[in-house]
Amino acid sequence: MKPFEDALRVPPSVPVGLPPAQVVASMEEQLRREPWYHGKMNRKEAEKLLKVNGDFLVRESTTTPGQYVLTGLQGGQPKHLLLVDPEGVVRTKDHRFESVSHLISYHMDNHLPIISAGSEMCLQQPVERRL
Prior knowledge:
By secondary structure, the chain is α/β, with parallel strands linked by helices. The chain has a single domain, classed as SH2 domain (SHC Adaptor Protein), CATH 3.30.505.10. It contains four helices and nine strands; from the N terminus they run ααβαβββββαβββ. The protein has helices at 3-9, 20-31, 43-49, 100-109, and strands at residues 37-40, 55-60, 68-74, 77-82, 90-91, 96-97, 114-116, 119-121, 125-126. A hairpin with a 7-residue loop joins strand 2 (55-60) and strand 3.
């Protein structure tokens, strides 16, 4: 066999072209390890958990399975920002991220607001899920 053909037979180290269901399952598995991830939750339930400006959590949308939403309190108003674009990429207005966890840690560590679709949200205190 030729080296080029051999290279084609080696499985890639990073999953490429996974079907959306597998991408969603992988993202869900990773998110379950995060204390601020609450699983499937509707807007109203999420808003009840926010107490002060800067509180935030991530949830899976109940109306769009596989869509993850950052819910936070900013200026006394609850905000809901979609985190995954139609191609399955985690992004904000200006940046792409390798995961939802990366997006959250990047903005918290650098004290930067998340800007998305004309909305701005500062992440200060994660609302941890109850066991």
